[in-house]
Automatic annotation (TrEMBL):
Family annotation (CDD domains): SRPBCC_2
Domain of life per record: Bacteria
UniProt-recorded name of the protein: Cyclase
Coiled-coil parts of chain: none
InterPro entries in UniProt: Polyketide_cyclase/dehydratase, START-like_dom_sf
């Protein structure tokens, strides 16, 4: 059964700076505890990743998945192409400029391919949302400081 959740965070950076960190998928393990690795399989003409193989581990469950990204000036989203643990995963970052800061909304929907107890799935989703927002904010600030 598909489960959805979302979380918002405000980051002291421009949408361009935030999207640059999101696009640097190979550094995701530095700021997301669930990411074990990332390999870019295809890129867009502007150099941003289009297809990416991700290695993830959460709540003791390991997965290798391939996702396809879609980019705009104020968003990054991906759709699951293949996975050993999920039937579907759709996720997106929506960035809304707010003065010198940016409001970042992260939305995710997952549908596990195997039954997972509700409390385990809820805890895994919470960890993913925290990494996707708080982890992203910390990484953006780190990159800005150089």
């Amino acid at each position: 059964m598909a489960t959805s959740d979302s979380r918002e965070v405000v980051i002291d950076a421009t949408p361009e700076e935030i999207l640059a960190v999101i696009a640097d998928v190979q550094t995701a393990p530095e700021w997301s505890s669930q990411h074990q690795g990332a390999e870019i399989l295809e890129t867009e003409e502007n150099g941003r990743p289009r297809k990416v193989r991700l290695k993830l581990k959460t709540m003791g469950i390991s997965d290798e998945m391939v996702v396809e990204y879609t980019w705009t000036d104020h968003s990054a989203s991906w759709k699951l192409l293949s996975s050993s643990q999920l039937k579907t995963q759709d996720a997106s970052y929506t960035l809304t400029p707010d003065g010198a800061k940016t409001r970042v909304r992260f939305d995710i929907t997952v549908d596990p391919s195997v039954p997972i107890p509700g409390f385990v799935l809820k805890r895994a989703m919470k960890g993913g949302l925290e990494s996707a927002t708080d982890g992203l904010r910390k990484q953006v600030i780190k990159v800005k400081k150089g």
